[in-house]
Amino acid sequence: MSNDEKNDPLIIIVSNRGPFSFETKEDGSYRVRRGSGGLVTALSALAQKHDVLWVASAMSDADRQWAEEQGHKIEEVEEIYLKLVIHDEAQYQKYYNTISNPLLWFIQHQLWDIPRSPTITSQTWDAWENGYRPINKGFAQAIASSVAEQDPGRPIVIFVQDYHLYMVPHYLREIVGDRVQIQPFIHIPWPGPDAWRILPAEIRTPILASLLQSNRVGFQTEKDAFNFVQTCRFYLPGAHSRGSRNSIDYQGRLVGANAYPISVDVEKVKELGQEAQTQLLKSQLINFISDRRLILRVDRIEPSKNILRGLAAYRTLLEEYPEHQGKVQMMALLVPSRMEVDEYQDYLQQIMAQAGMINAKFSEALWEPVRIVVGDNYHRAIGAMQIYDVLLVNPIADGMNLVAKEGVLVNQRNGVLLLSEHAGAFYELGDHALIVSSFDVYGTAQAMHHALTMRSAEREQRAEVLREIVEKADVRRWFYDQLEDALEVKRNS
Ligand code: G6P
Fold first, then answer.
1. Domain ranges of the chain
2. Could you tell me which CATH class the domain 10-262+476-492 is placed in?
3. Cβ atoms within 10 A of the Cβ of 398, count?
């Protein structure tokens, strides 16, 4: 890695899932696949100016093979230096499938059915001690070895992404001390202190204390940042906020808690909308929908997305307002996710059953009221977003929800956004959407009716403002704001 400019910062991104994955070709070479996440785009632009190193898990056999052949060294892949960490498979399973998803994910989205689950068993403790901790330590060691290769005076900023890696700041400080800036960003909601009571203190305390080894922690919304400060104050002896709502004083370190709302790559999403494949899939959808109004949702198959209550609301709409029968089409484009976790498998089965019940009750010869499409096709999703009349985004809890932002950006029919007050996007888009309470099926049905009968001038006005809001806040800004704040801390320290 070049290191011409001693003062040019090295930026290290750390995440469980990396920006690229590898496939082996017949001749033994590799095909590199780029992930669709916005962070890669933000960093590709940045990588023209600064050195960017991304540290992630080797997740497939080809990833591991690539990492081994590179001798565990970093390699420049499309301007970004990549280092894949090879983990012990059994440890990784415990870290990913027992602690990260579901335990932490379910706590932070408040999905547990508290009288029954979760139960912390010896299996959970084993996964914490022999999965989550060692995998986080492995990440810290991989980062530390890259830090050791740099000139001692070079500024290094480490952006640790998300709930898989809460223990990384702790292990990293143990190895490299205050040589580096650590600034995690948490993509998912951070609930208030009560939700964290589920974790035994012996797990909760190390997590909070580790995050407070950072210089600053980033969140999607002010509410998440505020909840984090409260959680630390409540559970961590010696953590104070001295009158400030957005920083914590802990063991001599002042740690900021700031909101950086994530966004989409505006240009890329728009370009994708123009691609031939998107247009083809869109025209197929138009043929299927005919002259009916489209109520669309696009989600990972994920309990926090509240797909079941969305279907129940649609059913209520058809019952309460029979004039929409035969004139409206609900379509759910659902991307399979974490199918190794039981809760996710069960959820998919319940979705299919509930959609089947609606179709059984209301279908007519030429009308199937709900169409569920399971698969991962981003072109199809963008094509469908261009033509919705109503976009339903009703999660129980969601860090941001980028579907809401992509949807309003590409929609061509002045569609109405139905948005849950519990999606992070609510704070930016809420004034121009119809707001629904995630749990209120009746209210969501009323909102659907309101959207379907809204005057066209009002729809147009709402849609225009929503599009402008998203156009102004591209994903690059999300990342640059964090970088600027990090470098500011460095200059001042
Ligand atoms: C969603 C969440 C991210 C999270 C990711 C992990 O996209 O919004 O916060 O990091 O899931 O997904 P994975 O498929 O790697 O488990």
1. 10-262+476-492, 266-472
2. alpha beta
3. 28
